[in-house]
Amino acid sequence: MQGLLTDYGALSEKIKSWGKTLGFQAVAISAPDLSKAETRLLEWLEQDMHGEMDYMASHGMKRSRPAELVPGTLTVISARMDYLPPDAHDSLEILASPTKAFISRYALGRDYHKILRARLQKLSDKIREEIGPFGYRVFSDSAPVMEVELAAQAGLGWRGKHSMLLSREHGSWFFLGEIYTDLPLPLDPPQGAHCGTCSRCIEACPTQAIIAPYRVDARRCISYLTIEHKGSIPLPLRSLMGNRIYGCDDCQLVCPWNRIAQTSTEKDFEVRHSLDSMDLTTLLAWSEEEFRVKTAGSAIHRIGHERWLRNIAVALGNAPTTKIIIEALKKLDNHNSLLVREHVTWALAQHGQSCDDCRT
Question: How far apart are CA 161 and CA 199, in angstroms?
Fold first, then answer.
């Protein structure tokens, strides 16, 4: 009876209104057809540009075929939530201060995965209260979902040349989340791309990971290297990483559309533990327990203390030589992790210190 009694056009408008009440800046609806994107995904995977992210290929075609991931999916509700912390230290100033640690702005507050999923669940609950039981599943970067493609098809923005979603009203400083549903909701129209001839994001990438418009080689991307990559950071890329210890925002910082980006009103995305402007040596001195406590509830927590130290060691290797930096690094030259010791040894070599164990 639901299909006979429900006015899906009216329901769609209510869903968008409820979404804004729940803190999303925009909600829109698309079909689950990602056939064009699937071709590009397969080409990208075949060229091994996903690096160690085996999960990108381990789900077969479920990533590009929503109805295979969630049987019965007819439409996808995409939602957008701003995350730029309002009081964070200026990113460009931190990047220009080589003894400071730069952390991607999205990771300065609480972990967005749980926050978005909880809001999407509340939105699903509102739909159920309105029409009764229906089939659905919520996602926020938590399963094989092509969220940028789905959001672009729904008209929430367009894919920029750096591969992220761009909005004329909100730039790119936002998270995306989805609800796969079995509801035949009316579809929203996509919007055209507005990058034009601009190539600032491509030119700004420190490691030249954006190898062509809309094409990123993850193996060179600093976000991948500092977060997803579990082993030794390739030697040719270390000096290009600067003081970026968790993620990289350079392509977003230079994008003209981010001049009009809005800061977040979400308390959960506010800066925690002064991570927007901490000294690298202070962070290097954190014990494993300090790391666990101070990153609890943060996206940073999932890389673990070992990779955290690895990343900071590289950043200190790129910093100006000072007695404080050398002493901080030497405190870890006998660390129980071979991965940490290797990167500390490399960093010390950058400052003219002994490098007997440095990988060649």
Answer: 7
Decide if 127 contacts 134 (C-beta within 8 A).
yes
Own/partner long-range contacts of 39-47 (Cβ < 8 Å, ≥24 apart): 41/146, 44/215
Report d(CA 80, CA 170) in Å as an integer.
10
Catalytic positions: 141
Per 3-state DSSP, the chain is made up of helix, strand and coil in percentages (nearest 5) of 45, 10, 45
- Biggest CA–CA distance in the chain, Å, is 77
**Pairing relation of β-strands 165-166 and 26-30?**
unpaired
Under DSSP, the state recorded for 171 is B
Sign, CA torsion 247/250/251/253: positive
List, as residue ranges, the binding site for tRNA.
230
Binding residues: 63, 141, 165, 176, 195, 198, 201, 205, 221, 223, 230, 248-249, 251, 255
Name the β-bridge partners of 165: 159
Question: Average of pLDDT values for 31-38?
Answer: 94
Specify whether the CB–CB gap between 48 and 54 falls below 8 A: no
* Residue 95, token pair as written in the block: 């990047």
pLDDT band at 357 (very low <50, low <70, confident <90, very high): very low
Phi (first) and psi of residue 80, to 5 degrees? -125, 135
The set of residues, in sequence order, having a beta carbon less than 8 Å from that of 266 and lying 6+ positions away, is: 23, 81, 82, 83, 109, 115
Average confidence (pLDDT) over 305-323: 98
- Give me the helices (H) in 132-210, please: 147-153, 200-204
Rounded CA gap, 106 and 104, in Å? Answer: 5
Which pTM value belongs to this model? 0.93
